[in-house]
Design brief:
The complex is a heterodimer of chains A (about 160) and B (about 80). Chain A has about 160 residues and is mainly alpha-helical. Chain A has 5 helices and 3 strands. Chain A has a domain of about 110 residues: Methane Monooxygenase Hydroxylase, Chain G, domain 1. In chain A, helix 1 packs antiparallel against helix 3. With about 80 residues, chain B is mostly helical. Chain B has one domain. Helix content of chain B is about 90%, strand content about 0%. Classes of the chains: A mainly alpha (about 160), B mainly alpha (about 80).
């Protein structure tokens, strides 16, 4: 995360985008060498570096929320497990897993949202590849969790949330 | 924030190992204890993945996801 922030910071001054604001319309050269015209009013209203900073902050907030949900869920699951441990009933374990699964699913929704946000500022193919792999893992886990929660609810007989 | 997340991931991993061991010792049923262990390890991996997104971490999380899927299938086969 630190490196991402650093890359976002350097991109504002680095060689990624060169903007010349002379003339009635400014010409911007993108990182891949394409040249596009952007009106000076648009540059004034929403400079790219401000957009990157804003999205990076949002990504961090949403990811932190997801991580907090997952950690709280893990703590609650461990406490529940310690409570049901003396009963030695494996069925109670299923309830604990159900609780943890719900928290994981909620946390994953937050993290998937941050993945979507991050696609807006991913600067390289390497980062895009990692982002795609992480999003695929999170989506697959979310799918399996939703399915298992549904099946285990039927098994335990708990009402749907 | 990275240090906090890595600390939380390490704590969750330790809790997963302790939980799994306690589950096996008390119930003598490997399947249920392993399921809870793997779920908590997945939680730890997700926390670690939030802190640092590099290929080794992504690979470990992918392997854990595959293990979780296999354990889930085995449990489903036992119950049906």
């Amino acid at each position: 995360m630190v490196s991402r922030a650093a890359s976002a910071a350097t991109s504002t001054t680095g060689p990624r985008a060169a903007t010349s604001t002379t003339g009635p319309r400014a010409a911007t050269t993108t990182a891949r060498g394409y040249r596009r015209e952007v009106s000076p009013a648009a540059i004034d209203l929403l400079p790219e570096e401000h957009l990157r900073t804003a999205v990076d902050t949002l990504v961090r907030l949403v990811e932190a929320a997801g991580a907090a949900v997952i950690f709280i869920g893990a703590v609650i699951a461990v406490v529940q497990f310690l409570r049901v441990l003396p009963h030695r009933n494996p069925r109670e374990f299923t309830r604990v897993r159900l609780t943890l699964g719900r928290f994981l699913a909620l946390g994953l929704e937050f993290q998937l949202a941050s993945d979507v946000l991050r696609t807006a500022i991913a600067p390289s193919f390497e980062e895009l590849g990692q982002l795609a792999a992480v999003a695929a893992i999170r989506t697959a886990l979310n799918f399996f969790l939703a399915r298992e929660i549904r099946e285990e609810q039927e098994e335990v007989g708990a009402p749907p949330p | 924030m990275t240090a906090v997340l890595l600390g939380a991931a390490a704590l969750t991993s330790a809790a997963a190992v302790v939980t799994g061991l306690l589950g096996v010792v008390t119930t003598r049923r490997l399947g249920d204890a392993t399921a809870l262990l793997v779920d908590l390890l997945i939680a730890a991996a997700l926390l670690r993945l939030t802190a640092q997104q590099d290929w080794p971490t992504i690979g470990v999380t992918g392997v854990l996801l595959a293990v979780r899927y296999a354990v889930g299938r085995r449990l489903a086969a036992q119950t049906s």
